[in-house]
Amino acid sequence: MTTTDIKLSKDLEKGIHFSCLMCGTCCRGLDEGEVYLYDEDIKLLANHLNFKGFEGLKEFAKKYLKVINDSFLWKEPGAERKRTYRFKTLAFRFTGDDDHCHFLKDNMCSIHEARPFQCRCFPFWQMMISNRSNFTNYSKKCPGLRELKGNFYSKENIVEWARAERKLELNYFLKMKANGFDILKLYPFLPKQLLENGD
Ligand code: SF4
Ligand code: SF4
Which of helix, strand or coil describes residue 43? Predict the structure, then answer.
């Protein structure tokens, strides 16, 4: 591990080659994963898909989103130790027998330029780059991670992605905290039904 603010597995110290081979596996949940969405993702995608205004966002949420549980480890200024905060967040609702993302078409992402940060950041999520066994486990599913060919990402590039992810998560947590962890204050357009069906 390095001593940078982001922990990096030793295997990634020299950077890696990676290119998506477009098998579509990571765009299928199959009860294993979620695609988390933050407010910036929602704005970008709703705009890209032409869902305008409050009613448009409501329609967008009804069609594509679900409410899930999330958590964040945080140390209050002056507190002795960190504590885990639990709250709600948004993710894509998957569809079909193979539990695929609504935007997966012929194994390709049909909203590539407006895809959520989580999809853009892969495979440099913090939980992947700081933990060798997470990386190895994910490579069993992802042929791009088994091949390790194509575009080169230096240690700095990798850390930059993970740092951006952490910043996004931290900002969301702080906004939620400032709003008493009431997701409706952040996303007033969410239909009630989504909250009732949440995890
Ligand atoms: S599992 Fe890997 S190769 Fe397949 S679509 Fe996802 S990133 Fe690309
Ligand atoms: S938005 Fe695109 S890249 Fe992300 S899960 Fe859906 S189809 Fe895959």
Answer: helix
Q: Which of 150, 157, 112 minimizes the C-alpha distance to 17?
A: 150
CA atoms within 13 A on the CB side of 75: 6
The answer to whether the CB of 27 is under 6 A from ligand 2 is yes
Listed in order, strand segments (DSSP E) in the chain are 16-17, 36-37, 65-74, 83-92, 104-105, 108-109, 152-153
144 touches ligand 1 (CB under 6 Å)? yes
**Residue 25 clears pLDDT 70, i.e. is over it:** yes
Q: How far, in Å, from the CA of 145 to the mean position of ligand 1? A: 8
pTM confidence score: 0.91
14: its two tokens: 């020299």
